[in-house]
Amino acid sequence: MIHVVVLLEAKDADALQAFERQAVEIMKKYDGKLVVAFEPNASESSSSNIAEVHYLQFPTIEAFRKYRTDPQHIELAELRKKAISNTTVFVSGRIQDYGK
Questions:
Q1: Three-class SS of 56-90
Q2: What's this model's pTM, rounded to 2 decimal places?
Q3: How far apart are CA 92 and CA 34, in angstroms?
Q4: Domains of the chain and any CATH numbers
Q5: What are the tens digits of pLDDT across the range 52-77?
């Protein structure tokens, strides 16, 4: 299992929702899952320019790569460009377990 955290800076909230609804459907083809998407609480967060934070899971890095290169996902490029000004993606590497 790989874990992916995505930080999104949005230009258009309605376009972002439209893009994300379609992206989630494409993700399912690769057994990907949007675990949670949330808008940060501005008064409790360290950055005010992040519109949404997404936590995704995929069974393998290859599944994640296939999702990102899926033709349907690529077709959403114009909608994505309208919706999102910047994206930061973090993909899990070595998992730390500080509870042990």
A1: EEECCHHHHHHHHCCHHHHHCHHHHHHHEEEEEEE
A2: 0.88
A3: 15
A4: 2-91 (3.30.70.100)
A5: 999 999 999 999 999 999 999 999 99
